[in-house]
Specification:
The complex is a heterotrimer of chains A (about 350), B (about 475) and C (about 300).
Chain A: H1 3-30, H2 35-46, H3 50-76, H4 84-102, H5 108-137, H6 141-161, H7 194-212, H8 214-224, H9 226-231, H10 237-264, H11 275-285, H12 290-314, H13 320-345
Helix pairs in contact in A: 1-13, 2-12, 3-7, 3-10, 3-11, 3-12, 4-5, 4-6, 4-10, 4-11, 5-6, 5-10, 7-8, 7-12, 8-10, 11-12, 11-13, 12-13
Chain B: E1 6-15, E2 18-28, E3 33-37, H1 44-51, E4 59-64, E5 67-69, H2 74-79, E6 82-85, H3 97-102, H4 114-128, H5 143-156, E7 161-165, H6 173-188, E8 192-196, H7 200-206, E9 209-214, E10 217-223, H8 229-237, E11 260-270, E12 276-286, E13 290-295, H9 301-308, E14 316-320, E15 325-328, H10 332-336, H11 343-350, H12 361-374, H13 390-402, E16 408-412, H14 420-435, E17 439-443, H15 447-453, E18 456-461, E19 464-468, H16 472-479
Parallel strand pairs in B: 3-8, 3-9, 6-7, 7-8, 13-17, 13-18, 15-16, 16-17
Antiparallel strand pairs in B: 1-2, 1-4, 4-5, 9-10, 11-12, 11-14, 18-19
Chain C: H1 3-30, H2 38-82, H3 87-110, E1 124-126, H4 137-141, E2 142-144, H5 148-163, H6 165-175, H7 177-182, H8 187-214, H9 225-235, H10 240-263, H11 269-286
Antiparallel strand pairs in C: 1-2
Classes of the chains: A mainly alpha (about 350), B alpha/beta (about 475), C mainly alpha (about 300).
């Protein structure tokens, strides 16, 4: 990518981010919050201390980055997978169940590895249902992944009320993972777990795949110009998007397993507070660039951590973060489309 | 003589830099069938879309029965009794016959009910012989029945002047005969028919009058009784006959061999609906030879060229192709490039299936640079291919497809949309490919271009492929189905 | 009251808000658009109902819900029809925006842990005679007034869709916009109107939740009904009659817990809730071959 092109890509993102900040201030003022208290809470709660960064922001960012990468992979291949939410839950459930079952019999690291792998496979399988429905029956993946999100949601609800419920049968959640089956922390005394490092590595790896490898190139041309990929490149675009769809689900499933073994240590219904949908905002704000997804994930992680602090200290409604996420998506869409129209009108 | 039913005087229309119509004239007497003839791109469809209110003329007058008219949309033209049957149908496949006829009716309460719409279809059927089952889904109808439905739609809006754009292009001979029989009755009953067609002989048998357009101008207006087939062909094609100055079809050079590198034997192709698009085509091309292909739209060349380029498998027959094939398709933006990507990425597009492991971007980038330099693509530093003009995109695609010296090059409309310099450049490069031993197959809707390039000519007509002498008249006649 | 008639009543109660939402989505999808932002119209409608009902009673609340639902649909339409942005991404963002904004507004205006705010509601309206029909009598005819318009809306929509010129125009737009345009129909006008209608129906769905059922607003109380509506429309194979049946099926799934409790059946609640989604996927797969979805559904038009 040339420097001029990079700037052209980055500029609208900057514009959107600026507009978001403005909206944020307006929302805060209209919510009657004391701006000074609120903004200071936002800063302190997100990036303002070592603890905020390493125990809140980056912990929140981890699932957002992983799911953002999942969405990025699918969208880049021209697959409108809005099922990251369901694939995440599938991965969390399967990974959590396996971790609970094996922690007692297998050595810790092995159990952990098996759990994470199971999560990846479960997410892939969950996506494969929609991918197969699309390939074989022409079912729109938008509808099928949405259905599968609900099925996953009710599935985990069943599990934590039934077979996986904790031994006392009081709370709708699973038993807690023993220490050996948990992802290790990166720093002593901070909640940041190695899942974050995995997410960053995956972002870099995906960037490498897109930029440098033949498979990544085929994914990109399938999404950007399927007819040309098939005609000029003789690429089997149906197969490429099928595999990318499943890989996208696998990443989301892995994210679920990471969340259970790294953050919650237990499975419950609201294991995902809408991460799968926020991830669309993350991926779009990053303009489907894997490395930028890391940045966008941290940005939204900071926003969510800061929003929690603002609610605690300044009484700002906790939905603050999700409103900004939604506005970010709409902002990017508007800027993109207006620019595209200008280009269409130009020649 | 009464006022013409429809009169177009001095009509001009410009699309961007192309002048599609240049003071064209058409005068249609009531109660007659009028044939409107012309080569591809002569301006026939544009003229008729202006008459139907779908396009606005830059200049000129549309008059209906002696009164000047201005249309703001086709609804205005429909309201005063003009109907048009487009070459590409405007039917909704999922709806029924009756629903398609009623489509566009207004009103929440009044007007439409399924029963009334069905009744209307039946009534038109008994009055005109265009019988259709009103409850049938359009998707289940044969092409001939869909054609009838398009006419019924126009008649349901009381069309008295009916414009038919290539109505028989997709019909079987029997269906064509039925349609023409009906058209005769329609004009005998006081209606007026305008027939846009490439099929010269049919037109001259059926029509009362004929108008010929060439390059947007009216070059012949006459009663059919006063013309001969030969005089109409002359008007269609102009005075150019045979090889012209500068066409320089050259004698084969050293690289020529007699063993064909491309061979099709009795190759047939059916489309998704099972209609035969290509019938038992047999083609052979040798190295160092340029084979021209001509045909009116929908005559089967689209499938033929894709089979020759190895992009599509035939329904039956045997195909022998070399391993290295370059293909420059007609629709560049859709089929040849990814506009949002860089030149190097678009170079890689060509071999996309064959790459393994790492992409050799460094090499691809220098190849892109080389193509851009060698093929004079400007500007040389464009970030994306989409930012280039059409001519420069075409040069780039040609350069890419000729990279690695293919044994076969298949090109569709190599110079469409290009300015003169770019066009000359592209033709020159095609010739040098030939000189270096590449077998070249060129399709073009511009016969002059084929005459300057081709050593042998194939013409497609209604799915049949025939070899003809490389002469304007022979090609023109074969394209319109005169053997 | 017997377990069966209690179950039947619960089915209708659960189905009512779903029915409005699905009715709206049906019209929108027949115009060739998938509006995932319908969820936004529902939650906005619920919030609008709360605010307006607080000022002028339940009827006024319905007006507020309509207004809020249409407002969200307008936002969607501007992005999708004017800017030609992707329908799915726009819809997702609009749902997020509406869920977040209504939650934040509720907390700001009424306090986050304040006493549960109650609004004027519609009491059940018992229709004499009809309500004494066996089994289904009370279920169908002793419901809050919000339920009754639906008994008319479904047949009217079926009639309008298949028996009027405008209904025909709507179907043609969803199937083949180019052919509709060639017949003199303004495609974008039809799609605009369809979206606004869909938004209004989403608003009514939200109004039902607040004014006829909960009697208060809860954050995120739309609970995915906008997405369920998309499943219902697909399961109902894009026809009013089919959608009515699918609405009842989803209603039954939601109400099954009442019956299961009464009969002491060991059916986990979540399994019964998940069943219709699985069923929908199966129907979508089996429906292949006979094209039932509008052909241009979700198509990105330039």
């Amino acid at each position: 990518m040339s420097r001029a092109r990079a700037w052209r890509e980055a500029l609208p993102v900057g514009a959107v981010a600026g507009a978001l900040l403005l909206v944020a201030v307006v929302v805060l003022v209209s919510a009657g919050a004391d701006l000074r208290t609120a903004l200071s809470a936002l800063w302190i709660g997100s990036l303002g201390s070592r603890y905020a960064l390493l125990s809140a922001t980056l912990v929140r960012a981890t699932p957002l980055i992983l799911l953002g990468l999942s969405v990025t992979l699918a969208f880049r291949a021209g697959v409108l997978n809005i099922g990251a939410e369901g694939q995440f839950i599938a991965g969390a459930s399967a990974g959590g169940a396996v971790a609970l079952a094996t922690a007692a019999v297998l050595p810790g690291p092995v159990s952990l590895l098996v759990a994470l792998t199971t999560g990846v496979v479960a997410g892939g399988v969950w996506a494969a249902v929609a991918a197969e429905l699309r390939r074989r029956f022409g079912v729109l993946e938008v509808i099928s992944t949405l259905m599968l999100n609900f099925i996953a949601l009710y599935g985990v609800s069943y599990l934590v009320h039934g077979p996986l419920q904790e031994p006392t049968h009081v709370y709708p959640q699973s038993a807690t993972l023993p220490m050996v089956a948990r992802l290790p922390f990166v720093f002593d005394g901070q909640r940041l777990h190695v899942g974050f490092i995995l997410a960053v590595l995956l972002g870099l790896a995906l960037w490498y795949v897109f930029a440098r490898t033949a498979a990544g190139f085929r994914i990109r041309i399938t999404g950007a110009g399927a007819a040309a990929a098939a005609s000029a490149g003789a690429v089997d675009t149906a197969r490429v998007s099928f595999l990318a769809f499943i890989a996208s689900g696998a990443i989301a499933g892995g994210a679920g397993a990471v969340e259970v073994t790294g953050v919650t240590y237990t499975l419950f219904e609201r294991i995902s507070p809408g991460y799968g949908y926020s991830a669309i905002a993350v991926a779009l704000l990053a303009r489907l660039h894997p490395v930028a997804v890391i940045g966008a994930g941290v940005f939204f992680g900071a926003l969510e951590a800061g929003a929690a602090a603002m609610q605690r200290d300044a009484g700002v409604p906790s939905q603050f973060a999700s409103i900004l996420e939604a506005l970010a998506i709409l902002g990017v869409l508007a800027v993109d489309r207006l620019r595209a129209r200008r280009q269409e009108a130009a020649p | 003589m009464s006022d013409p039913a429809l009169s177009l005087r001095g009509v001009s229309k410009r699309f961007g830099r192309t002048l599609a119509l240049d003071g064209a004239e058409l005068h249609v007497q009531p109660g007659t069938i009028h044939a409107l003839l012309g080569e591809n791109g002569a301006g026939k469809s544009t003229l008729m879309r202006i008459a139907f209110g779908e396009l606005r003329a830059d200049d000129g007058v549309v008059a209906l029965a002696g009164t000047n008219r201005e249309w703001s949309s086709s609804a205005d033209a429909i309201a005063v009794g003009i109907g048009m049957v487009h070459q590409h149908f405007t039917l909704v496949p999922a709806l029924t016959v009756a629903e398609n006829v009623a489509l566009g009716d207004r009103g929440f309460w009044g007007g439409y009910t399924p029963a009334r719409a069905a009744e209307r279809v039946r009534k038109i059927g008994t009055q005109t012989g265009l019988v259709l089952d009103p409850t049938a889904r359009v998707a289940d109808l044969s092409v001939g029945a869909q054609q009838r439905l398009e006419i019924v739609k126009a008649l349901a809006r009381n069309a008295r002047v009916l414009i038919l754009d290539e109505p028989t292009a997709v019909l079987s001979p029997r269906e064509s005969a039925e349609l023409y029989g009906w058209l005769r009755e329609f004009v005998a009953g006081g209606g007026t028919g305008i027939l846009i067609t490439h099929k010269l002989r049919e037109a001259l048998t059926l029509a009362d009058d004929v108008t010929v357009l060439r390059h947007g101008r009216t070059v012949l207006q006459s009663a059919v009784s006063e013309v001969t087939e030969a005089s109409v062909v002359t008007a269609l094609l102009g005075d150019a006959r045979g090889p012209r100055v500068g066409s320089a079809r050259r004698s084969p050079r050293g690289m020529r061999t007699d063993a064909p590198v491309v061979e099709l034997r009795r190759v047939s192709m059916k489309d998704a609906r099972g209609v035969l698009r290509l019938r038992e085509a047999t083609v052979a091309v040798c190295a160092g030879e340029i084979l021209g292909v001509a045909g009116i739209e929908g005559a089967g060349q689209f499938d033929l060229l894709r089979i020759l380029a190895g992009r599509r498998a035939p329904s039956s027959g045997t195909v022998t192709l070399p391993s290295r094939i370059g293909f420059v398709p007609e629709d560049r933006l859709r089929d040849a490039i990814v506009p949002t990507m860089s030149p190097a990425e678009n170079v890689a597009l060509h071999d996309a299936r064959h790459f393994r492991g790492h992409m050799p971007w460094r090499e691809l980038e220098s190849e892109a640079v080389a193509i851009i330099a060698e093929y004079d693509v400007r500007p040389t530093d464009s970030a994306t291919i989409g930012a280039l003009s059409g001519g420069n995109q075409q040069k780039f695609v040609l350069g890419r497809e000729l990279r690695g010296s293919p044994q076969l090059l298949v090109v569709e409309n190599p110079t469409r949309g290009l300015d003169i310099r770019a066009a000359a450049f592209v033709l020159d490069r095609i010739r040098s490919a030939q000189d270096s031993g590449c077998a070249v197959i060129v399709y073009s809707s511009d016969l002059d271009e084929l005459l300057t390039l081709a050593e042998r000519m194939l013409v497609c007509h209604a799915g049949e492929v025939r070899e003809v002498p490389v002469e304007m008249e022979a090609i023109g006649r074969a394209m319109v189905g005169i053997t | 009251m017997s377990a069966t008639s209690a179950f039947a009543e619960a089915v209708v109660r659960v189905a009512t808000p779903l029915a409005y939402a699905a009715l709206g989505e049906l019209v929108v999808e027949r115009a060739g658009i998938i509006n995932i932002g319908l969820e936004g119209s529902i939650i906005a409608g619920a919030y609008g109902a709360l605010v307006f009902a607080g000022h002028g009673g339940a009827i006024f609340g319905v007006a507020g819900a309509l207004l809020a639902g249409i407002l969200l649909a307008t936002l969607f339409a501007v992005f999708v029809l004017v800017l030609r942005a992707d329908q799915i991404i726009t819809g997702t963002a609009i749902s997020m925006l509406a869920l977040g904004t209504t939650g934040a507004l509720y907390q700001t205006m009424y306090g986050s842990v304040g006493a549960a705010l109650t609004t004027p509601t519609f009491a059940p309206m018992v229709i004499p005679g009809l309500s004494s029909l066996p089994v289904v009598g009370r279920a169908l005819f002793a419901q809050p007034v919000m339920t009754y318009p639906l008994y008319l809306l479904f047949p009217i929509l079926a009639w309008w869709l298949y028996r009027t010129a405008d209904g025909l125009a709507l179907r043609a737009v969803g199937e083949k916009p180019s052919a509709a345009a060639a017949a003199g129909i303004s495609v974008s006008r039809v799609q605009w109107l369809a979206l606004l209608f869909g938004g209004a129906m989403g608003g009514l769905s939200g109004a039902t939740l607040v004014l006829a059922q909960a009697g208060t607003f809860l954050e995120g109380m739309s609970a995915g009904r906008g997405f369920i509506a998309i499943a219902i429309v697909a399961l109902g194979r894009w026809t009013p009659l089919g959608v009515a049946g699918a609405v009842l099926l989803f209603g039954a799934a939601g109400a099954l817990q009442f019956l299961a409790q009464a009969m002491a059946w060991p059916i986990p609640y979540s399994i019964s809730l998940a069943t219709p989604y699985v069923f929908t996927l199966v129907v979508l797969a089996v429906a292949r071959g006979r094209a039932v979805a509008p052909v241009a559904l979700g198509a990105h038009r330039e």
